[in-house]
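Q: Predict the bound structure with beta-D-mannopyranose.
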Amino acid sequence: MAKIIGKELANIPWQDKPQGCKDPIWRYSENPIIQRDALPKSNSIFNSAVVPYKGGFAGVFRVDLTSRLQKLVTGFSEDGIHWQLNNRYFYDGYDPRLCELDGWFYLSFVKKNSIPGGTVIGIARTKDFESFEDLEDATLPVSRNGVLFPRKVNDMYMLFSRPCDKGHTPYGDIYLSQSPDLTFWGKHHHVISPYNTWDGTKVGAGPTPIETDEGWLCFYHGVTTSCNGFTYSMGAFITDIHEPWKVLHRADGYLLNPRTLYECVGDVPNVVFPCAALTDSKTGRIAIYYGGADTVVALAFCEVNEIVAYIKENDIMA
Ligand code: BMA
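A: Predicted complex:
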């Protein structure tokens, strides 16, 4: 029985697996949980991050405005499903991830700043989701999908990232970098590359890795290229706890791919893009937040023992 190593979260958003569903991950029946026009000038609200906060939940949300500028906003929720978003844009950037670490909430995101070379991974931290303290950028340009680990490993902070180009990159591998102080990053390691057709174009890290007694459970997005463009799906791998760049198991196929209307139709069709996961160590429940078609926020569920068993039974590393 695989177990989550972490805090209990009695009020994790949850819905039991529908009868007859054979998949290890299932969608929330009321998806999408955030519609594209939830804010006055939002064109779309999607790839977003949430964490438990003060008995409820807080989040940082990607909002593309009607001007199509890409911004981040904060939001709060009592149940993790119904959200009040602030109509105040505090960062230029996109695809945020959140991680509770050392008594802070750390935000990592794709920072669109004036660096001529392109985007970098920005890092900021907050205790109250009101004021954010900027840290040094974690990468050189061009990089996306920066994801911090929720604790130090071997006394080092760990960060996944995905070097890429300035455009709609037609390649991409996940790398891990280490830092003693969240300022100087080094000791870089390759983690995974594209492999099967479903993730054969590029891959990028997803939610904050989940610590389990079988290793770090990592959901990621994988991209395939068809005659109709890119299709983004979600897969998973498990790494060694002490050397998280060493992949122990990796599922051969996707775990969630664009099938519903809100995943197949939107500003960018056929996109499932996971950026956050809540976990309850007591029950093993996992709630995954993902963007649908670059337009809305959706929710899916799985259970740690079942998902770890599934990855091991369908393992390209075996
Ligand atoms: C990636 C990122 C994501 C987006 C995806 C699909 O390159 O920009 O924000 O969801 O493309 O358009």
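A: The CA atoms of residues 273 and 291 lie 5 Å apart.
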